[in-house]
Amino acid sequence: MTDLTDLTLAEARDGLRAKQFSASELAKAHVAAVEKGRLLNAYVLETPDKALAMAAESEKRIAAGEARPLEGVPLGIKDLFCTESVRTTACSNILKNFVPQYESTVTAQLWRDGAVMLGKLNNDEFAMGSSNETSCFGPVKSPWRRAGSNVDLVPGGSSGGSAAAVAARLCLGATATDTGGSIRQPAAFTGTAGIKPTYGRCSRWGIVAFASSLDQAGPIAKTVRDCAILLTSMAGHDPKDTTSANVPVPNFEAAVRRGVAGLTIGIPDEYRVDGMPAEIEALWQRGAGWLKSAGANIVEVSLPHTKYALPAYYIVAPAEASSNLARYDGVRYGLRVPGRDMIELYEKTRAEGFGREVRRRIMIGTYVLSAGYYDAYYLRAQKIRTLIKQDFEKLYAQGVDAILTPATPSAAFGIGEKGSADPVEMYLNDVFTVTVNMAGLPGISVPAGLDAQGLPLGLQLIGRPFDEETLFAAGQVIEDAAGRMSLPAAWW
Amino acid sequence: MSVDEKTVRRIAHLARIAVSDADVPHLQDELNAILKFVEELNAVNVEGVEPMTSVTKMAMKKRQDVVNDGGYAAKIVANAPLSEDNYFMVPKVVE
């Protein structure tokens, strides 16, 4: 029998139901892989006892013929999702000892459907980063290396632990969150698939907030189908989140084999950015060719405000973050550094508890919201956001079903290589993904090939609001044409 | 626009983050790099454009004005760094 950790989530689910192996065997194989994979620093907390107990329950259900949709499937959970009685830190020193008294809606739905928890996954502190280097637990090492090199690479971020754990077979799938590209960019860097659904598709209740009008949860997994299975369980209306959409959740897995015949796919000229490597341009062309061969109609389109999305994001996201993170005051939960009075207690607590990137973003956010600057920065950025959204609405009204772009402007880079002198250098990673968050649209990243150094590259598909099904259908066409990504053999 | 040292200290105080004198110059550089990056937004004509206030079109949800949650003070203070009798403890704020 092949190693159980090499199975896709769909294969494992079907194998469990066919009783080819037991839920406990599957959980034990993953618990062992997690232990053996500690060098990668993908998990910040392992919960093997919980995994085995949940698997034992799954075994009973399967024996009784009462298997739920994700029965016995071992998952990793980004440490931004509150898990009841299981430490949740957002990978920040300010929350290092925080033990939630409640469960996030998204994870509660995964457990309701029978999934098994392996532990909590590393991420950039408060999801602020594109390389997983801002985590208070230290960086995650990607399981990928350049051909003939042993330089440690980043897995991308902020969901770097999620992407690395999936690529290294330390779980069958993982939860993740995406505020400016934090699902799609790490998925592209690690040869995995990841979808950020439409804003409002997944409840934000119980997820540590970064920028509330941009944050969305979604899965990272080995295949497009696996993402579809996970999203079906994660999505759904939640009265506890006022922005949760009260729309029916389709069975996304059923859309995976729908194909793209007759669909119109747009190729936006504005995504040809300066300095983009020729191999990414070539990959993009190849992707368009694959969709065309499968029967899609490929059209050149224009999204004129694309280049303003990233700078506008770096006003809107820090502004919302400065407001959201005001709650870390050293009084109600988290770290407390004593002071002579209240103000000094706040200032010392927040200086010590927040890392450098988080402090920087809170300060930028505070500045753009402060008296005299609000109109010039924040209000202008929100107007530009309207223009970005209208660009997409125009294309969809003209009959475009989805838009194909590269997922990232480069392959993964080395740990410590970027952003140490100029924070903007790191921000540019999200240039292709951030438009989607600004417009609240769904976007999927699908592995599409390797670069000359043997590192994975991804293509992104952007869809209409609440039409994730088309993204799964088109994503599957790309996955089929590119061939299943062969993940790196364990060196760790 | 760019920020000077005085503004950096003012923002830090508004954000309730203590900064040391040694931190100010590099914070100033980093904030100015970000402000320079967002400068190109000034080139966009936003005349008559409505600012986005809701990402997806939906009516704001309202709930019935009734008590539907609560009664677990011990859970609320479970993560408090300092609490007594289900109260959060803070330094004295009134003389």
Topology:
The complex is a heterodimer of chains A (492) and B (95).
Chain A: H1 9-17, H2 23-36, E1 43-46, H3 48-63, E2 74-78, H4 105-112, E3 116-121, H5 160-167, E4 173-178, H6 184-190, E5 193-196, E6 216-221, H7 224-234, E7 264-268, H8 278-293, E8 297-301, H9 306-324, H10 342-353, H11 356-369, H12 375-397, E9 402-406, H13 423-427, H14 434-439, E10 443-450, E11 456-463, H15 468-482
Parallel strand pairs in A: 2-3, 2-4, 7-8, 7-9
Antiparallel strand pairs in A: 1-3, 4-6, 5-6, 5-10, 9-11, 10-11
Chain B: H1 5-14, H2 24-37, H3 73-76, E1 83-84, E2 87-88
Antiparallel strand pairs in B: 1-2
The sequence of SSEs of chain B as H and E is HHHEE
CATH class of one domain in chain B: Mainly Alpha
Largest interface: A-B, 72 and 51 residues
- Under the CATH scheme, the architecture of one domain in chain A is Alpha-Beta Complex
Q: How many strands of chain A?
A: 11
Strand content of chain B: under 5%
- The total of beta strands of chain B comes to 2
Shape of chain B: flat
The number of helical runs of chain B is 3
Helical fraction of chain B equals 25-40%
Q: Radius of gyration of chain A, rounded?
A: 21 Å
Question: What fold name stands as the CATH topology of one domain in chain A?
Answer: Amidase signature (AS) enzymes
Structure overview:
The complex is a heterodimer of chains A (492) and B (95). Chain A has helices at 9-17, 23-36, 48-63, 105-112, 160-167, 184-190, 224-234, 278-293, 306-324, 342-353, 356-369, 375-397, 423-427, 434-439, 468-482, and strands at 43-46, 74-78, 116-121, 173-178, 193-196, 216-221, 264-268, 297-301, 402-406, 443-450, 456-463. With 492 residues, chain A is α/β, with parallel strands linked by helices. Chain A has a domain at 4-258 and 412-482: Amidase signature (AS) domain (Amidase signature (AS) enzymes, Alpha-Beta Complex). In chain A, strands 1-3-2-4-6-5-10-11-9-7-8 form an 11-stranded mixed beta sheet, with helices on both faces. The radius of gyration of chain A is 21 Å and the shape is globular. The two termini of chain A are 23 Å apart. In chain B, a hairpin with a 2-residue loop joins strand 1 and strand 2. Chain B has a domain at 5-42: Orthogonal Bundle (Histone, subunit A), CATH 1.10.20. Chain B is mainly alpha-helical and 95 residues long.
